[in-house]
Amino acid sequence: MRLRALLFAVLSRGSAALRSASPSLLVLPPPRLITAQGPPLPLSAPAAALTGNGATHPHVQLALSRLNARGRVFPATVHVTLGDTSVSLPGEATPYAYTLNVAPNGAVTVSAPGAFGAVYAFESLAQLIHGDVIVHSEITIEDAPQFNWRGIMIDAGRRFFPLHVVYNLLDQMVAVKLNVLHLHASDECRWSVESKLYPNLTDSLAGVLGGFYTQGDVTAVVAYAAARGIRVVPEFDIPSHSRGLRPIKSQGVVFCDESDTQSQIYGDPANSTLGVLKALFAEMAGLFSDEVFHIGAD
Predict the structure, then answer these.
(1) Residue ranges per structural domain of the chain
(2) pLDDT exceeds cutoff 70 at 4
(3) How many helices (H) and strands (E) does the chain have?
(4) Residue 21's pLDDT is what?
(5) Identical fold at 2-143 and 151-296?
(6) In what order do the strands lie in the sheet with 151-155?
(7) Topology of domain 2-143, CATH
(8) Which residues, in sequence order, are bridge partners of residue 109?
(9) Res 42: pLDDT
């Protein structure tokens, strides 16, 4: 909850023109357009029934079940219309726009180009439900992100973030409509993702440098994030900040010097380092679905 409060505080510092004069209409981040009138709209159904061509989309269903699990009380039905009903992974060109309407008769309608816009509409609706009422009986929101990359980085190359922390972070990110988890997966201290080609990259991690993500962990995190419209962009830092590669020196990685503080890998004339990196990066890239594979370039 502290993390969510921090994210809300940061994201609410938007343009004054986007802020609502009514605290009850606080939707974060502030939408491009929000209008509301009428008294609070009582709600009584413990869970909404989905209708429309988006009703069977797994990401939309998951968004509803996630909000129900948080104790929200919803209208009897929510009608969801998607321009594209295909099940897709989030990427650089993914649309997140949506329109949300609440009518005095309790009807809630959502329209979006794709499923992730509908996911965002549910998050906005959740913020407009206080107890067992929607704050007003007539509400319209039209919104779309200003930036394609709305991200947070975790530096697992220096300190391990346990899986439950990563999952919690992803839940807080979708609540405030962030869409990129930048996984800084290697650095001076350690390599944080299991390699089956070079297992000793993580076998020796212990103490304050202990902990790593198995390949199964990565697959699960990428899927969990994707269902929330979040991309997982990995970063494996080279040519400097590469001390995490020291465990595989004997398998071909060459460093620029032999000091105890060595951290710069060397493009040796025999291409030994390059050969290892090609195999290792091909393996790592296969674990992630995003178009971007970050190599640091420090």
Answers:
(1) 2-143, 151-296
(2) no
(3) 7, 13
(4) 46
(5) no
(6) 151-155, 180-186, 231-238, 294-296
(7) Chitobiase; domain 2 (3.30.379)
(8) 79, 101
(9) 87
Question: Sign of the CA dihedral 24, 174, 147, 143?
Answer: negative
Which residues have CB under 8 Å from 231's CB, separation 6+? 90, 91, 179, 180, 181, 225, 290, 292
Q: What is the pTM of this model?
A: 0.90
Query: Of 143, 142, 141, nearest to 36 (Cα)?
Result: 141
Q: CA-to-CA distance for 98 and 114, rounded, in angstroms?
A: 9
Q: How confident is the model over 20-74, as pLDDT tens digits?
A: 446 668 899 999 999 999 999 988 666 678 999 999 999 999 998 887 777 666 6
Q: Are 284 and 236 in contact (CB under 8 A)?
A: yes
Distances (CA, A) of 98 to 32, 88, 220, 259, 263: 11, 17, 27, 56, 47
Strands 138-143 and 33-37: antiparallel
Judge: domain 151-296, CATH 1.20.210.10.
no
Report the pLDDT value the prediction gives residue 260, as an integer from 0 to 100. 74
**Measured between alpha carbons, how far is 222 from 72 in angstroms, rounded to an integer?**
26
Count of other CB atoms within 10 angstroms of residue 248: 18
The more confidently predicted of residues 7 and 213 is: 213
Whether the pLDDT of residue 231 is over 90: the answer is: yes
Token readout for 163 is 């899986």
